[in-house]
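[job 0412] stage=fold_complex status=start
inputs:
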Amino acid sequence: MTSSPALQARLAIREGRHIGPTHGLAPGFVQCNLVIVRQPLAYDFLVYCQRNPRACPVLEITDPGDPEPRRLAAGADLRSDLPKYAVYRQGRRMGDETRITHLWEPGLVSFLIGSGISFDQALERAGVPTHQHRWVLRTTLPTVPAGPFRGPLIVTMRWLTPAQAIVATQVTARFPWNHGAPLHIGDPAAIGADLAHPLHGLPVGTIPSEYVPCFWACGVTPQAAAEAAGIDLMITHAPAHGFISDLKSDEICLP
Amino acid sequence: MTSSPALQARLAIREGRHIGPTHGLAPGFVQCNLVIVRQPLAYDFLVYCQRNPRACPVLEITDPGDPEPRRLAAGADLRSDLPKYAVYRQGRRMGDETRITHLWEPGLVSFLIGSGISFDQALERAGVPTHQHRWVLRTTLPTVPAGPFRGPLIVTMRWLTPAQAIVATQVTARFPWNHGAPLHIGDPAAIGADLAHPLHGLPVGTIPSEYVPCFWACGVTPQAAAEAAGIDLMITHAPAHGFISDLKSDEICLP
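[job 0412] stage=fold_complex status=done
writing structure:
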């Protein structure tokens, strides 16, 4: 009996046979960022996501206390099916966990949010490399606040050739539920991108003249907002350790 | 001093100089469906919209008690800037109002939801007629429930020639925040479309063989769900009397 690559990957993670980042696991399936908050804050968090849809495209919201993402992956368990979780208390990252069963509460609400990893395969098919010249950066662009959630837009920067930038714009525009088209192309200073302090990636050197920096809204944005809000408890995926859904990326792209 | 056609239309409505449907007013600007509920139900309603994104693409959520849609139309007033409102109590439509200032409460939350009217102009530009052979119908397709909100998907049916249907699919796919591409083309029975009891439009006759019925998710869906839930108070736009935003349809379409 065969099962889908997504299910196989989730079981390998649940049983501890796969540890480490999920990049490259079950290619072609939508990978999601995870944010878990207590129910009283769920409304403000969801409004924040709606007001910043390019950074926070919500793909599923679980019912309070329900660890199963019934629409994106029936039978999965959000308490054990990601390889690493980050636990925040009062807005501070207190430590990482490989499962969160012992931290579960009846009022926890889980948000699965689209991730740019989901269109990497489509970019590769179109000849756009995705494994190099890639950083996560803060900008000085504000997000639209909701309740206690506010803060700067976080972006993914990729350096591409002009021809690749044009193709990448067309390809990613077809994935509005995974951040969509770039929000900026060209001078990093125009959006106040903080090249000196990347949140992810090696130090940014001088941009070679043959490349155009391209910027996409990044799913780290809502986590940063929740962190800045200093809320009591938030659990997220650890960076690069996402949730692999049963949804195929090509199923939620546009013609 | 000139002002935008959208602002002019809203002022004409506010001052009673325009009464009647908004179809054709301020062409090219996004027109929205409106749903107003009390705050305790706002979370469930928003989750319902997220779980049924093709029928309920939320474009703005106001803060509780705030009648101004600050992102879609700064300075507008949702209590007076629509020509007609429908007021529901315990799920029953009790009557229509031309303004709702006297019904306003501090805890009311307004949802502005994308509408297919917004892509009519793009369809017309592409040679697809939008004023004829158009109905709003119930189907037997269930929506995904959230809290008390549940019920069938409501669709807009248009009869198009095969060539028009292909163009209309391409054009509307570019407007994912206004229902996007058709959800079905062809036999109405495949989605249980209730041709005998249209919610809007004249009786449906026999479909001439030169036409293909095309079906889009319809923004009446969340209203029908709220109606079926029998919630204490819900205020919506009256059918065909939408809210005209400052956002241009072409600004939220995809390349």
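[job 0412] summary: Residues 120 and 131 of chain A are 9 Å apart (CA to CA).
[job 0412] exit 0
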